[in-house]
Amino acid sequence: MPEDITAAGASIAGSVLVTECDQSRTLSEICGCNLWLKFENLQFTSTFKERGALNRLLALSPEERRRGVIAMSAGNHAQGVAYHANRLGIPAAIVMPIGTPMVKIENTRRHGANTIISGKTLEEAGEFARTHGEAHGMIMIHPYDDPLIIAGQGTIALEMLRAAPQLDTLVVPIGGGGLISGMAVAAKSLKPDLQIVGVQAQLYPSMYNAIKGDRLPMRGDTLAEGIAVKVPGRITTEIIRHLVDDIVLVTEDQIERAVAMLIAIEKTVVEGAGATGLAAVLAAPERFAGRNVGLVLTGGNIDTRLIASVLTRELAREGRLTQIAIDIVDRPGQLAAVSALLAEAGANIIEVSHQRTFSDLPAKGTLLEVVIETRDRAHLDEVMKRLGEAGFVAWLPGRR
Prior knowledge:
Rossmann fold; four-stranded parallel beta sheet; alpha/beta; 3 domains; elongated; Alpha-Beta Plaits; six-stranded mixed beta sheet
């Protein structure tokens, strides 16, 4: 199988970018290890999925190319298949589950594929794709449980170890398992002692359950929808069982923090699934302390509205953006007094609203809600202290 990955590298050369693999000095200092980032979010379709998709398409016979291909995907595999199928002149249909981010749907359509929205989950979309494909004589291009797909994804590890041969740990997101399977085969063939740690979203621990024999539930909407897979691959599960050293889970808060940190520090946009590797390192720095760690930023296809929400929520967590509720007497001059105090304390007012009707305050009182910007949590604590010293009853909503 290592030779299949080498062959895949030769096949896709020139059609898929050899993305940068750079050390991040700042993130290395924060995490307490030597951290390298593989920028697969900078591929033409903003996803590593191009690699496996192209490797699989190139293996089609002339007759199979004429019949066309079909794939099911939550977005990134769809774009990889659509883009390279269009480039190679192969008809393509893509089935995407309901709830797939609009940016991924539109990008897939832009690449010329017939895009079909069907199924509440990736598994339901896959069932529709199989039925539709059989009815129309199309070739199914599976997103992860296919040796050629796995081999294509494994080329990432070859490039990482070529760029940073000192790497001793790879932390890799897991959905269906195609990426980590290919990378594990490639990396272990070159450095058998290299540690490989898989990462899944806590809301969708399918491979974690399969490998560890657990029964953790799978539910809800995750920021890492690209790896929200309920049923992992059969081929990939066996590879992971033999070659991956451990699988860890990360929470939604940890994923959000990683997305925000990559934007703030690296100035690079990474979707939730692609940030799970950094989330895992940030969540357990003692595990990776002093090691040479490689992370794959697997994709950058995230809706701009969602980016705005993630960044705003991170500001709130850091104490830099806060909503304060203040109980004031309903008479002239009170708002001006609060505004003046906040200004003296160095806080910037972002939003102001009065609530006279829907509150439990006396009829002569009013609830003033103010969103303020502060330097950090210590500055916020100072602002709250000064409000109290001035005689105002102020609290953070939900913490009274």
